[in-house]
Fold this sequence. Notes:
Elements: H1 2-24, E1 84-87, E2 121-123, E3 132-135, H2 143-147, E4 152-160, E5 166-174, H3 180-188, E6 191-193, E7 196-197, E8 200-201, E9 203-215
Parallel strand pairs: 1-9, 2-9
Antiparallel strand pairs: 3-6, 4-5, 4-9, 7-8
Amino acid sequence: MRKDLIIGVILSISLHGLLLGAFNRKAPPKPKVVEEEVKVVQMEMPEIEPEKEEVVEELAEEAPTNQLAPPMLADVPSVSVTAFTQPLQPPPPPGLTAAKGAIAIPVVKPGTKLGQGMKDLFDVANLDQIPVARVQPAPNYPFEMKRAGISGTVTLEFIVDSKGDVVAVQIIRSSQREFEQPAIQAVQKWKFRAGRKGGRAVNTRCQIEIPFTLTDD
Length: 217
């Protein structure tokens, strides 16, 4: 009996000890959260230069200059000549006609080589010194063409010999056939200082356009 009492006391003490231990037990501490410092890196932006306005230089508009010579027949340079002009005149009195008796001058047929077989014949471009006109009378204006108020041109090829005389003439083209004969007759009367090659006078092949122009003077 006494033994049972002792056992009961021991069990009671143990039970109370367990209960007290349970109440006195502290809750485990919460783990500390370590906050990582976020490093802020400040980036320096490069300085942006302001855009420069493009300065457009205004170029003065210049009229285009033609540096190319006008096309010509191969190896047949032309001799410069001033335009032949005659004033308009009233028609002649009734019964008065234009003078006749034009001189017939042999003309080389188109398509043939002017001066073929002639020695010491050069084109103007191949000379050391080109022919220079000394006497250059203007052609007569055809009466009927003048009265009708018609203008035109005649292109001739001719040879100036070593003495400065025109010895052969060839028609290249013309606007009206009526102008051909007066143009030929005028060129046959022209006198030149002969062209020179290698220090001596030579025969020269030339080309020219003769204009027939009317004026109101």
